[in-house]
Amino acid sequence: MGAAWRDMRGRKTNLRDIKEMVSGVKAMEMEVCVTLGMIDAQQALELKEAGLTAYNHNLDTSRELSHVREAGINVYSGGILGLGETDGDRIGLLHTVSTLPAHPQSFPVNALVPIKGTPLGDRKPVDFTEMLRTIATARLALPKTIIRIAAERKTMTEERQALCFQAGANAIFTGDKMLTTDCNGWEEDKVLFER
């Protein structure tokens, strides 16, 4: 579950509602992962007590990873490709994640989904080979981490998704929406995996 805000500061009502949702999903005997931006140590503890399994941070919020880890919540930490970064920036992302005190349990590889009318709405989508290179390098640098294909997967053909798995990805995010963008739904993914 995700929220499109920068941090949890001043969001007591939101945190209460999110804890209720976490408890509800956990009661169905499912793992629960949220991405809520930057959180403090107290918020991390409250989410853990509600039953949270994992917390997703993109690397821009990495200084809060210690709050999540210390609360006993699994860490998912990745990045977004296609924001105008250089090859060196991508290497820096992978170096930073691979030299954390402990590797994240999951590394989501996102590609920017340009949305008309937003500041990056006219940006050209990231070249697919950059996605593959990032996944393959992440697999080498983070050998025990789950590498997830995330945002922008909706536009990939089945062949491209298969190439991502051959390059080292071993998980996806599924569902009809990923924050504000369309995502592959479970029924579509189920057909893909069966094929």
From TrEMBL:
One of its GO terms (cellular component) is mitochondrion. GO terms for molecular function: 2 iron, 2 sulfur cluster binding; 4 iron, 4 sulfur cluster binding; biotin synthase activity; metal ion binding. One of its GO terms (biological process) is biotin biosynthetic process. Keywords: 4Fe-4S, Iron, Iron-sulfur, Metal-binding, S-adenosyl-L-methionine. The keyword Iron applies. Pfam families: BATS. Its cofactor is [4Fe-4S] cluster. Residues 1-153 form the Radical SAM core domain. The keyword Iron applies. SMART domains: BATS. InterPro entries: Aldolase_TIM, BATS_dom, Biotin_synth/BioAB, rSAM, rSAM_sf. Coiled coil: none annotated. This is Radical SAM core domain-containing protein. It comes from Podospora australis. The lineage of its organism: Eukaryota, Fungi, Dikarya, Ascomycota, Pezizomycotina.
